[in-house]
Specification:
alpha/beta, TIM Barrel, eight-stranded parallel barrel, two-stranded antiparallel sheet
């Protein structure tokens, strides 16, 4: 296993500087945020572009990998998390086009994982979204296979705010849909597993890793705290609004010993990438870095 971080919180820092700091502080992998260089989505922890994937050449990709290697850093994957099932067709077309460019760039660079979302239209049922997803992703998965890239979907419901409520912006959150995903595309795709999203859905972590561990191609490390007062106030019909609180590793309700035990039993030995969305450790570069170091110290004893 290698411990690393997702570069999204460092939107104003050059990738080489992120790599230098990461390598000097005990990290050995980066998942590189690859939103469009021209700008676009600006929700929290989205929009960062550390590699301009448009027209990326093999020599440019090799140069980037070489610069990171100087700091002891490998690339765990390229990350771009849009909503390919968005209700607006023009929006879907734009983000799908960029997703394909990210996949192409990964292939050119020799990076074998691209992390993303399946997406979702919050006004449609899960089954209606799934019907749209198969039509959209069949050619994307083929494109990834042709590029020598495994597409890994994150198990995040994408429902953190009322503009995502009530159905969320990503349907790949429950065992029922994950079984469909692997029945549809097999090992051509994988899961980018994040344990925090199981906590507030009250999905058993041990059972989930046992069932889907063999399909995990990339893993995020993020914690989550259920605010019991907020849950009491809003109830479960609020679908997390007001009571699911993203935290850094060790500050929430994820059982990290159980998490690593399950991954090792499932045979997962890939990167563990810290995803930082903790509001208590944001606002300044110093706070963001402090948060990553705190999470590092919680996770490092489990990684050998």
């Amino acid at each position: 296993m290698k411990l690393g971080l997702l570069t999204a919180p460092f939107e104003d820092t050059e990738l080489t500087d992120v790599a230098a700091w990461s390598g000097a502080n005990g990290f050995s992998a980066l998942e590189i945020a690859c939103w469009p260089a021209a700008g676009g989505e600006k929700r929290r922890y989205a929009g960062t572009s550390h590699i301009n994937v448009d027209g990326l050449t093999a020599s440019e990709g090799s140069e980037i990998k070489g610069q990171l290697s100087e700091h002891g850093i490998e690339i765990s994957g390229l990350g771009y998390y849009p909503n390919p099932l968005h209700a607006d067709a023009d929006h879907r077309e734009d983000v799908i086009s960029h997703l394909k460019n990210v996949i192409t760039a990964a292939g050119v660079m020799g990076v074998d994982v691209v992390n993303t979302f399946i997406g979702g239209d919050r006004s449609l049922s899960v089954d209606e979204n799934w019907a749209r997803a198969t039509g959209i992703f069949d050619p994307i998965v083929r494109h990834a296979q042709d590029a020598g890239v495994r597409l890994c979907f994150e198990n995040c419901p994408m429902i953190f705010s009322y503009d995502e409520w009530p159905g969320g912006h990503n349907i790949a959150y429950s065992p029922r849909i994950w079984r469909r995903i692997f029945e549809q595309w097999g090992n051509a795709v994988g899961m980018n597993f994040d344990p925090s999203h199981l906590i507030w859905q009250f999905i058993d972590q041990t059972r989930f890793i046992k069932e889907f561990g063999p399909h995990m191609g990339h893993v995020h490390a993020k914690d989550l705290m259920v605010d019991r007062d907020g849950l009491y106030e809003h109830g479960i019909m609020s679908v997390g609004m007001g009571w699911q609180i993203p935290r850094l590793c060790g500050l929430g309700d994820v059982d990290w010993s159980n998490f690593f035990s399950g991954l090792y039993r499932a045979g997962y030995d890939g990167p563990i990438i810290i995803e930082h969305e903790d509001r208590l450790f944001e606002g300044t570069d110093e706070k963001v870095k402090r948060g990553f170091l705190l999470a590092r110290d919680v996770l490092q004893p489990f990684i050998k």
